[in-house]
Design brief:
single chain, alpha+beta, nine-stranded antiparallel β-sheet, globular, two-stranded antiparallel sheet
Length: 405
């Protein structure tokens, strides 16, 4: 018994604060050797992109963000989409997401985002009031909120999930370009409505991991085309455009999507615990020709995780002392969140108008259901935000909440 017990107690590591639920697989990246119709060496000297047909071994990890290691894969939550490229020049860790924008511009506010999506310390349940209490004072999150509460917030499975990331390239002459990465599923994209997710969760809350493993096992290898949007400093000279703003998408009319290769996953791990659970990605792990992005919110995962734990502990102490903590973000007068207020609404409005009619209906339905549990001041403030994004957006959310009364 004494010899056997450690095999049980040592079956797991300490849960990650975020991105705890995960699945993974091995495969390869195959370069096209070009950037659309142009020679790619004009933009980057990264060797893994330069030679058509050259293959680079990869390991990919998918994850949900806010829930624990055994949380359901049907939750409304951004997904992590991370790839480790084992190149001839070293390791490149691409750390991406299933949604094209971030909640905040300022990476120091990342702990507040994670904190807003943590369970309520008093009841230990996920409470939408915490989320909206944060967002109403941090309007840069409105664009992400619009994506998240649309069907894009629940991917149907990992094989049909998009991936997005940011970066920068440098060529042999030292010229720098800003880059947005897109991983486009070859077998078509797919998302779930809330009703579809609820029905699926009733019978299988591991469906995405199961789907990925079984597809690879039967030889139906998932495949994504890796495409990029590229902008040079000259392209970004206009005052109304900030290529480093992670809360906004780049218009394809300004930076067209151009393919540079494909990612194929064709081998399952033999030990989930050893090969998937314990893997760690480092956004600063880059190779020659790739450079880091200034102010990138994805550059602070570990400090943010520790800060979330400290904030959660502080909140619990306040509750024990009889003081319920407010969930408003900690914003200073000079915070970058206070700048660009109008652009925050413009970005979210552009996203709302880009959605299909069915996607808008699902977005409004989900927001009304979540805001229905919130206090009137939160509802009123959020309706003002939505109306500033798009008049139809605000009117439909307001009408849905009025029907609930």
């Amino acid at each position: 018994m004494i010899d056997a017990l450690p095999r049980v107690s040592g079956l797991r590591t300490v849960d990650r604060v975020i991105h705890a639920r995960n699945a993974g697989a091995y495969g390869f990246f195959e370069a096209y050797g070009r950037l659309g119709d142009e020679p790619i060496e004009a933009y980057t000297r990264a060797d893994l992109f330069l030679h058509a047909g050259a293959r680079t071994p990869v390991f990919t990890r998918f994850s949900t963000v806010a829930h624990g290691g055994h949380g359901p894969e049907t939750v409304r939550d951004p997904r992590g989409f991370s790839i480790r490229f084992h190149t001839h020049d070293g390791r490149w860790d691409f750390v991406g997401s299933s949604l094209p924008v971030s909640f905040v511009r300022d990476p120091t506010l990342f702990p507040s985002v994670a904190h807003a999506f943590r369970p309520e310390p008093l009841t230990h349940r996920l409470d939408p009031r915490r989320v909206f209490e944060f967002i109403r004072f941090a309007p840069s999150a409105l664009n992400m909120l619009t994506w998240l509460f649309s069907p894009w917030g629940i991917p149907a499975n990992y094989r049909s999930m998009h991936g997005f990331g940011t970066g920068a390239w440098v060529n042999a002459n030292g010229r720098r370009s800003h880059v947005r990465y897109h991983l486009v599923p070859k077998n078509g994209d797919g998302n779930l409505t809330q009703a579809e997710a609820d029905a699926l969760q009733a019978v299988n809350f591991n469906h995405a991991t199961q789907d990925l493993h079984e597809a690879i096992a039967r030889g139906d290898a998932p495949e994504w085309e890796l495409a990029v949007q590229v902008l040079t400093d000259v392209d970004c000279a206009e005052d109304d455009f900030d290529p480093l703003d992670p809360t906004a998408v780049w218009p394809k009319s300004r930076a067209p999507l151009r393919p540079i290769g494909r990612v194929v996953l064709d081998r399952n791990p033999r030990s989930y615990f050893a090969e998937v659970e314990q893997v760690m990605f480092k956004p600063s792990a880059l190779v020659d020709g790739l450079v880091s992005v200034e102010h990138e919110t994805g550059q602070t995962p570990l400090p943010a995780a520790r800060a979330v734990e400290r904030t959660h502990a502080d909140e619990l102490r306040q509750l024990m002392a009889g003081r319920r903590a407010a969930n408003a973000p900690r914003l200073s007068a000079g915070s970058r969140q206070c700048a660009g207020y109008d652009s925050n609404h413009r970005h979210a409005g552009d996203t709302y108008r880009s959605l299909s009619s069915a996607e808008r209906e699902e977005l409004v339905r989900n927001l009304v259901a979540a805001l229905g549990d919130c206090d009137q001041p939160i509802r009123s403030h959020m309706i003002e935000h939505f109306h500033a994004c798009d008049a139809d957006y605000g009117l439909r959310v307001a009408a849905g909440l009025a029907q609930q009364r």
